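Honest question from a wet-lab person: if I give you the sequences of every part of a complex, can you actually get the arrangement of the whole thing, not just the pieces? Trying it with mine:
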Amino acid sequence: MKYYPMPTPNSTAQTVILANGDFPTHPLPKAILQNNQERLICCDGAANDLLEHKITPQRIIGDCDSLSLKNQQQYQEIITKIPDQNTNDLTKAVLFCQSNAIQSLIILGATGKREDHTIANIALLAHYLPLIENITMITDFGVFNAIQHPSEFESYPRQQVSLFSLFPTPITTTNLKYPLNQQSHSYWWQGTLNESLANSFTIKVNDMLIIYRALKKD
Amino acid sequence: MKYYPMPTPNSTAQTVILANGDFPTHPLPKAILQNNQERLICCDGAANDLLEHKITPQRIIGDCDSLSLKNQQQYQEIITKIPDQNTNDLTKAVLFCQSNAIQSLIILGATGKREDHTIANIALLAHYLPLIENITMITDFGVFNAIQHPSEFESYPRQQVSLFSLFPTPITTTNLKYPLNQQSHSYWWQGTLNESLANSFTIKVNDMLIIYRALKKD
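Yes, you can. This is the full assembly:
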């Protein structure tokens, strides 16, 4: 059964993507951003923010319409322009990683600002399942993973947990306060407000499910 | 065909609910909050913030575990305690409105902070469809409505629009940049990144759909 540890400030991945949402403010994603500068890909909307924080990414990806002219000139050697209107900047960055055979990825800055982008970016984790083996999204409020097989998650007692089904699929859990036994969720709100009872919990599914584990407040 | 105007600072409703997310900062929801104090219901987690802004709601609803002791004592006459663990505070407030025969509702402060709550609160708009005739959710970034019949939306050219299907259902649109003709969305990201072409657009559906219209930045 695949095990998903909780990220730590020392967590690393082959590549870290910084997306266009809120720039990280929680100490955990901030530390991961700082500690992974040499393997950092930045969606173009986030590059101005990142450069203001004196962090230079390895690559900037997007249609570059939101990158200042000054930054476009200064960083032209690390910019990969992808003008496709049918995918968002996060997906462009993930596809770029896939084409470079990246198999582990941390995504930061993917939520906040427009809620339609937040929902799309979280739901897209399911779309990325067949593309890259290990993807963890870390926000200022929690950790998201998409799964499609039975999985075990590191946790702590009373950690807030939410499950989001993309399609109704039978779910069986252990170590959650509101356990599920071959039950399905038809709606996105039905799997929210759960809670871990122990130092790990398990989820059995055979279709796509997105798992949220809350971060402790900073 | 039901028409959904864009809210204005003077928009009003029989009741306005302030939920537990980010306290409004965009001028539009801020003005609506200010202008509707005499018909304001507050979810308990938001009451401390609201009282700091010198606004006293008509009623405070929730399990009250997040309301300071001082506020619990001072405002005990307007507090309705509902300890049900199976519904969130926003739903408790909406059910309270339904039991009081409220037929028009504006929801503020329902997004921001934990993303699982943001997703649940937005998706719950579909759950509220049979309960209350007119509900509009206004955030710092946009306006959300749930529909289940053909509808027309006030808009402006180039306004960003996203459509979220709870279940795959045929959608037909007019006046959108990426038009749909009896097409379905299987995933929550598929209806994002659309754009209005005119001062209104129409959406034909026969099942639940959630519509997002972006606000102009303040």
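Two things worth pointing out. The longest strand of chain A covers residues 142-147. Chain A touches chain B through 35 residues (CB under 8 Å).
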